[in-house]
Amino acid sequence: MVAVSALAQIHSNSDYTATGLSKLMNNDYQGAIRDFNQAITINPNDVAGYCGRGLVKGALKDYQGAIGDYTKAIFINSNQAEAYYFRGGAKSALKDYQGAIEDYSKAIVINPNYAEAYCKRGYIKEKLEDFQGAKTDCTQAIEINPNFAEAYCIRGVAKYMLSDNQGAIVDCNKSIDINPKLAEAFFNRGYAKGKLNDYQGAIRDYEQAIVINPNYAEAYFNRGCIKGTLKDYHGAIEDYSKAIAANQKFAEAYNLRGQTKLLLRDKQGACNDLHKAGELGYSKAYDLIRQHCK
């Protein structure tokens, strides 16, 4: 867990901070909060105590509470790179991507060798469709840490979004070599292979991603898309159904399952799926509903 490793870098004289960290690592969140609270009570300037409590709050999805703790830590010590890094993660979870970039950038100013901060900033830039910026940040992370599997994985995404599918595959290969359990690397390599019309290779990669993470909705969905391209419509429907089972709000999966059912002349099933896609916010489904579901 990168965050726990980063927390361990923050100096603290409190035994409660150490036991809180141990409990956090074992997912004993309530026990961890009690210990971090005690550390802060004993020393109201315990930066590690605030950061640790913020990590627990983040794990419990109380991101605003986590931001409050990280901000307090920064107020106590404005040169604590890890506090900015943690706060960037909480802001990212709240989709405050510009705020996250600002915090990761501050962490990098304090520690120019902070590979994880470059990687996270690259990930956010990718979400904002700044693919060249994402590629540059991940390259910097890799220069600092040549064995940074996640950085290769994210750079691979940036490359295929920049139409460098072969380069994306090279990066995903490297990511997998470093960490064969990184499902996202197989997923991203599968996507790049699909773009190069290597459909069987793409299917194999999506299958491996699913072996690692059986609830990987996007991997089922993309595999379904490939099967649809290969006119394996029953196989595509099966995969869209698995994607929906993993994420019941997956509007695009309902939409494509509905379209595929139309190809198999299951009009009622298709219309049910298209209506569900529309209800979930996929507005393009209504065009098909008007055309086929009268």
Q: What coarse outline follows from CA principal-axis ratios?
A: globular
Rg, alpha carbons: 22 Å
Largest sheet data: none
The percentage of residues in β strands lies in under 5%
Assigned CATH class of the largest domain: Mainly Alpha
CATH fold assignment of the largest domain = Serine Threonine Protein Phosphatase 5, Tetratricopeptide repeat
Compute the number of strand runs.
Answer: 0
Number of domains: 3
Output the helix-strand order.
Answer: HHHHHHHHHHHHHHHHHH
Please report the number of helical segments: 18
Second CATH tier, the architecture of the largest domain: Alpha Horseshoe
Show the helix and strand layout.
Blueprint: H1 2-7, H2 15-25, H3 29-42, H4 47-59, H5 63-76, H6 81-93, H7 97-110, H8 115-127, H9 131-144, H10 149-161, H11 165-178, H12 183-195, H13 199-212, H14 217-229, H15 233-246, H16 251-263, H17 267-279, H18 285-292
Helix pairs in contact: 2-3, 2-4, 3-4, 4-5, 4-6, 5-6, 6-7, 7-8, 8-9, 8-10, 9-10, 10-11, 10-12, 11-12, 12-13, 13-14, 14-15, 15-16, 16-17, 17-18
